[in-house]
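Thread: quick sanity check before group meeting

JM: Hey all, I'm pulling together slides for Thursday and realized we never actually wrote out the predicted structure for the chain we discussed last week. Dropping the sequence here so it's in one place. If anyone has concerns about the input, flag it before I start.
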Amino acid sequence: MARFNLVRFGLVAGLVVLAGGAVVLTAAGSAWWWFLAGPLLAPAATGVYDLVQRRHSVLRNYPVLGHARFLLERIRPEMQQYFVERNFDGRPYDRNVRSIVYQRAKGTAAEEPFGTERDVYADGYEFLVPSLAPVAVPDSPPRVRVGGPDCSRPYDMALLNVSAMSFGSLSANAILALNRGAALGGFAHDTGEGGLSEYHLRGGGDLIWEIGTGYFGCRTRDGDFDPEEFSRQAAQDAVKCVSLKLSQGAKPGMGGVLPGSKVNAEIARVREVPVGQTVVSPPYHRVFSTPRELVLFVARMRALAGGKPTGIKLCVGSRRQVLAVCKAMLAEGVTPDFIVVDGSEGGTGAAPLEFADHLGTPLTEGLHIVHNALVGTGLRDRIRLGASGKVATGADLVKRLIQGADYTNAARAMMFAVGCIQSQRCHTNRCPVGVATQDPRRARALDVGDKSLRVRRYQEATVASALRIMAAMGVDDPSGLAPHQLRRRVDPRTVLSYAEWFDWLEPGQLIAEPLPGWAEDWAAADADRFAG
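JM (edit): ok, ran it. Output follows.
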């Protein structure tokens, strides 16, 4: 910390002192001192400006030196891409995505010259099908009513919302900026599993309170679920939905991980854990062990939450286990109000590389499994589907709606909107822009007022882009989208629509006469055990 402060303030103070001394010597004696004063005045003034300006977190934390990053952006975009635009697993991240997010967050145009940079003849290339009869773009974006027959307080969800990111993983200022942005834009903010903090509540945004295996915010001293505390917290007006996290895309089968360097007194108080100790949530829930117990616990949560929409979040693994949960829903007559499918391509600030690379179902296949399982069991109209995992652009949003989702959540793109430069130091507590750190001297660089506006602008522009894309496809409402409107190149000579690429079940088909590819899993699925 002392070294960080020396770099941050010592350099600027030294420049100011040297420049001021040179000016005094010039005034007192020889004009030759201007040869020293001149070159020192410019960086000294720049350093002072960098410390007080609010638009660039990098410059607030790294005055003068931080301009090197922007120089790279101007003279060699591909160099800047190589150094800072890398995915969490080390592979290059599409630079157009970050460019679009940044431009939309800043309120600037998102058009780029020279056309696509993608190889449209590469295997796996996907494209949306435009119409020769496009329609007018709707005046306002549609909302998705979340709340099944057992929900007494439904919520109208936006098409794009803030995905789960906990206080602890993110700084207080980052959480507050996301929440104020959600309040300004009228969309929801998922708290992540780290509990409800004052920064989630202060901004006025609608909250989806996520409960993980650690039961942070509603846990007993021995780490079990505390129904009374849960009911008290869920009763707050800001909490619009509650979500039970079963697994996370970037690390399915693991609980959340918060390095001890980030567990300060405030985090410890919110999560009810010891200060300075790494927090590793259990990989499994204590409150249920079978599909039947899971759906009954969802019903219990909804009752404790006063009838607010209650759902689950998972990264899909075995299709047979998904079908087992559906059988439990049918047997008990109980359904969640929503299910969020988290793709294995989702990001995280702390997880083993092997988990991020090799475990879990990607979002496309995960959505297909859950959507069709619900359709095939006749439950789809009772449950809304959310999709999360590298959702960043309007095109991403439209693709996920076609694949079965009702709405989407974004985490990484929202982090970009609040200033993340993907330096991959999330786990070290040394985030250079104050997003993923609990160091207050680093976090102060993130100006809440400026970044909350960027979050709102990004979400608004991305949803508007999705509506324009749908209009170009001849659709004025998500209900008009269909699998044949999304196509994939499967080899250099073959393109298939999603209607051809995947099987799509009819309502109740699993109960009446399952397709051969589904019949074995449906027969083996058991409401009383999670068998793979």
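AS: nice. Confidence is low (pLDDT under 50) at residues 75-93. The two ends are 48 Å apart (CA to CA).
JM: adding both to the slides.
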